């Protein structure tokens, strides 16, 4: 299987992902999974600019991402999947993509969100999606940068809800 890492990050590709994570994990392809980004030319252009040299980029809908992964299209690559929110990854799991572990990174604050850590803020629907991912056997961790210690995200979530 080609999935090296899966991360939730509202900023998608930025300094931490582009430099630290791709280097540490030896990533050869970043896959942004988000139905709305696939139709946003400006956002796609920004993601292309933020992708490190030598790393391929795919910006795919949830359905297309699942189909490509399950068809073995990336089996020879080291794939980092990035999504803005947990619902996208839950849908991938429901479509049969074997995601074993998700690193919960930055999720922006809003008026309706609850703060879990300094940089992770969740909505009620996010909490429900995280619970469903956990029930499906997906390990959820929080680790901002590779040098940080990995924390059990469900444990953090339970402390704050």
From TrEMBL:
Residues 1-161 form the PTS EIIB type-4 domain. GO terms for biological process: phosphoenolpyruvate-dependent sugar phosphotransferase system. Signal peptide: none annotated. One of its GO terms (cellular component) is cytoplasm. It is found in: Cytoplasm. Its main location: cytoplasm. CDD domains: PTS_IIB_man. The keyword RNA-binding does not apply. Keywords: Cytoplasm, Kinase, Phosphotransferase system, Sugar transport, Transferase, Transport. GO terms for molecular function: kinase activity; protein-N(PI)-phosphohistidine-sugar phosphotransferase activity. InterPro entries: PTS_IIB_sorbose-sp (IPR004720), PTS_IIB_sorbose-sp_sf (IPR036667). This is PTS system, mannose-specific IIB component.
